[in-house]
Specification:
nine-stranded mixed β-sheet, alpha+beta, disordered N terminus, 15 helices
Amino acid sequence: MLTKQPSLGHWAVILLNAMILSGSTVSYDSRARCDGAEPMSLEGLFQLERVADPQLSPDGSKVVYQVTKILDASKNQKATQLWLANADGSGSRQLTTSGKSDTHPRWSPDGTKILFESTRDGSSQIYVLDLAAGGEPRKVTQIATGASNGIWSPDGGRIAFLSTVRPEWSALPFAESDAKNKDTDEAASNSLVKAKTFTKLFYRHWDSYVEDKRNHLFVIQADGTDCRDVTPGDRDAYPTSSTFSAGDEFTFSPDGNYLLFTAVPAKGESWSTNHDICRVSIQNKEQEWQPITSGPAAESLIQFSPDGKWAAYRAQSKPGYEADRWQLIVCECNPDGTFRGTPTSWTESLDSPVNDFRWLDSARILFTSDKNASSVLFLASASKQPEPVAAPFEGGRMGQLTGLSLRGDRYALARATMNEPAALYTGSLAGGVALSITAHNRELLAKWERPVPESMQVPVEGDVQMQMWILKPPSFDPAKKWPVVYLIHGGPQGAWEDGWSFRWCPQIWAAQGYVVAMPNPRGSTSFGQKFCDEISGDWGGKCYRDLVAGLKQIQSLDYVDAGRIASAGASFGGYMQNWFAVNEISKEFRCLITHCSVYNFESMWGTTDELWFDEYEHGGMPWEKQEKYREFSPHRLAGNLTKYKTPMLVIHNDLDFRCPIGQGHELFQALQRLGVESRFVNFPDEGHWVNKTANSLHWHREIFGWLQKYCPPGAK
């Protein structure tokens, strides 16, 4: 239960941590293993509805949320609609029926209306649904460049939203600027010349060419009149990288007359992480914005206390390091959002990051964090060290928490585990077990045997333990020998958490007939900042040796067929497949699968989008730190591919601008030239991830077909 007093759930968490420290294998008590009689199917994965973004009404009595349903996976058809339920789970009903994408619901301050964004008329625009009056939603915006991320002003009279525009027109009156954006975009679309011209970095990001467009904030009257760009100029007023975003990254000042927001660095945005919180009037026409923070690294997600007297935000301290610990900074403020006094960290002593947070009252903040590969809730205040809140779920298993909403002491959130996709829960900080209020997938999940994860500890160098998840296949028989897939997570500053993913879903891999092992080696988050930091500049060092130790632990298990072990990973996990392929460990694997990976650190720097990452990881630019870029670069040891000849499936996508397509080409070329059994699957219409459902089906079938060929599933 959510209380600082010990409870059954609290002691369950203490017992789990004690068992982890002792090196025991821990499995969660769950009925998921015996609920269903059949394994989860690939087609079933795409039948699951995706529940997200719960928002409590101002009085805490209702929850609005979004549900995405795949209509036809083979045709990339899906729809996201809004649903409404009472906070006790009763009265659940679908609110919108556009058949398109209705997302990001936000309650009006008086609780009578819901603001959301929708593509029902083509481009994304802001709509308002009046619950009291009924009827169809009313369109608030009609902007050529689209509108998203809408929020209300404190009095409900105005709405702020985000749109990506051409900065050269942004200082013009709205109607003129909007017309010029529309005409310029239409001319480019209709022209036979598709040349792109760039004058600075970024010109592309993640999976799209942004050219010189900018994320700007607009303010409009709630009735749809008097729309204006309040952040004109050649700068982004909203993070272009999700690394620096944890929610709604802009808000109105307590008096409603200003916007405060996370601004991208004014200079060197592709190699600097120095995001500042800036402030502009809702009537602003100036292209210079007032910074109210001035730290050396990133600050983001400013929020004001209920009484408007305090401001809180997240901050990092290491310039250039995107995986630095986020701290919670609090400062007394004026009604216009400016600070008075000195900002103070409320989490300086906490060796865990601040993710999302909400003000509980004017003296306390509830925030989510990560610890030991699971989410954690903390209460923070000025007078006390952050205190963990006991898990409000049966058995003390927190899982993966997202979408935190708080009204007084009532909360709503989305919770997922490794054996169940996200469902919504509500509860009270006063105590009690959280109540599950959604059942969108209940019948489908009940059909499947969904194994629960076990947590294993592996001794590694430095007198520390590496946590590793083990997920056994359905109908597991410990008396038999089972093949293993050794999954390496991305990041590298990331982790395999007790959560759910529709892209890399361990359940669907286990359902093929494999034991799935998911190690969290050096560099993984949620095990303290030192453990996380030890990957930087050492990708093929301690982290690699941690993974070798993890593999040896797996091979020693009585139920493992050591002759049938494969490995797979994406991004950094893909890099590690490439490093495996040219090192001694390669001979332990029947095959390798590398998705959107890094193969050549030198060419990676010259083609990736976010330069701060490579430059921090290697300590500078390639001509300054040539040996660091080469030290753990797999391409340097390509000759070893012929030594081990481990079959490799290479997947790389044309729109991946983080680990660009050339990395896959270089790797596949070396494999083929050296006579190593290999296959290259390329998705020209995907980026770093495979998001389109038809492509995802193909992606899964390619991978499982590769495993079937070289590392057959099932017990022997």
